[in-house]
Amino acid sequence: MADFLAELGEAVPRLADGLLVTAEATVLGAALALLLAYVLGLLSGSARRTVRGAARVVVEFFRGTSLYVQLFWLFFALPMLGFRLEPLACGVLALGLNFGAYGSEVVRGAVAAVPRAQTEAALALGMGPVLRLRRVVLPQAHALMVAPFKNLLVQLLKATPLLSLVTVQDLTFRIDQLRSSTGATAASYLLLLGLYFGMAVVLSLGMNALERAAKARAGQEGGA
């Protein structure tokens, strides 16, 4: 254990770099996933059958295939087609596409859960589709989205260790280096477990705060 602690002290800067890479992949992947979730979720509820159908095909493809396979396809197959991305970019793209597909169901369900009377009242006031969506539907739907999005965000964080398989030097990659140099498998992965748990707690607390704010905002607007 003394040897492990000595090696750990020397590895702290590398572990910090890996932690930053993991945080970067999580933030960028979540941002891309959120964007895709809104686009695909709203398109999935379109009145046009072709638009709705195309969105559903995309969603079901990325929900129905493994993130592991998607990641390796982007990293190894795209270069054969003439497109080469950096390992981190491949990881962010895979996370965004996969979790964006799952998130789109959250958006679609939350929008559908807004009482129809609300949109009918907005229509009676002469609001166009975009204005109705922005002023009436989404403010109420946001409060319903935050809790499921919190779960997806934590799941996305827990999926980032897969990025080490395509040479992204994230936290898992750095911990594996520490394990190889010390031979302390249990201690190394116990440290990894604790670090991921800490990050998940921080994300959960932040999303809890967002959920309270979204509910308060929806209540204030409903009262107005």
Roughly what fraction of the amino acids lie in strands? Answer: under 5%
Which series of helices and strands comes N to C? HHHHHHHH
Terminus-to-terminus distance = 62 Å
The CATH class: Mainly Alpha
CATH architecture annotation: Orthogonal Bundle
Globally, the shape reads: elongated
The biggest sheet amounts to: none
Structural class: mainly alpha
| Strand elements, count | 0
Number of helices: 8
CATH superfamily: MetI-like
Question: What low-confidence regions span 5 or more consecutive residues with pLDDT below 50?
Answer: 220-224
Q: What is the CATH topology classification name?
A: MetI-like fold
What is the number of domains? Answer: 1
> What value does the Rg take, in angstroms?
21 Å
Range of helix content: over 70%
Written description of the protein model:
α1 runs antiparallel to α2 (49-64) and α7 packs antiparallel against α8. The protein has eight helices and no strands. The relative contact order is 0.15. With 224 residues, the protein is mainly alpha-helical. The radius of gyration is 21 Å and the shape is elongated. The chain has one domain (2-223): Orthogonal Bundle (MetI-like fold), CATH 1.10.3720. The termini are far apart.
